[in-house]
């Protein structure tokens, strides 16, 4: 089942917007002009993960004590305990076997459309 959630202009680049879609809380974010949709439930303690911030992936820098940014990979940081998830796949960065559910999203004209349903549910699930 596909659900239109608004115009692409309704979503600020890099800021997650939490929507109630068919009884589910889903965060929709546009990053680099591409929309992503994630279930608003952290696998750790079922916190509202989409209330966190979207940032770029941080990695160890070339020297001790330095931090660098890895490209433009979008990362969602859970506000409760700081768990970091790859926005594109939903996978937890520190343990790829955990993650949050993702949903396929596409743009139809200027409208953002999220696909829901058992066959569309992607990403890893909580243990």
Secondary structure layout plus pairing:
Elements: E1 2-7, E2 17-21, E3 24-31, E4 34-39, E5 53-60, E6 67-77, E7 84-86, E8 91-92, E9 95-99, E10 102-103, E11 105-108, E12 111-115
* Structural shape: globular
End-to-end distance: 26 Å
CATH class descriptor name: Mainly Beta
Q: List unreliable stretches of 5+ residues.
A: 119-127
Query: What is the CA-based Rg, rounded?
Result: 15 Å
Percent of residues in beta strands: over 45%
The CATH architecture classification is 3-layer Sandwich
| CATH fold group | Rieske Iron-sulfur Protein
Describe this structure in words.
The protein has 127 residues and is mainly β. It has one domain (2-115): Rieske Iron-sulfur Protein. The protein contains no helices and 12 strands. Strand 3 (24-31) and strand 4 form a beta hairpin. The protein is globular and about 45 Å long. The model is unreliable at 119-127 (pLDDT under 50).
Concise overview:
The chain has strands at 2-7, 17-21, 24-31, 34-39, 53-60, 67-77, 84-86, 91-92, 95-99, 102-103, 105-108, 111-115.
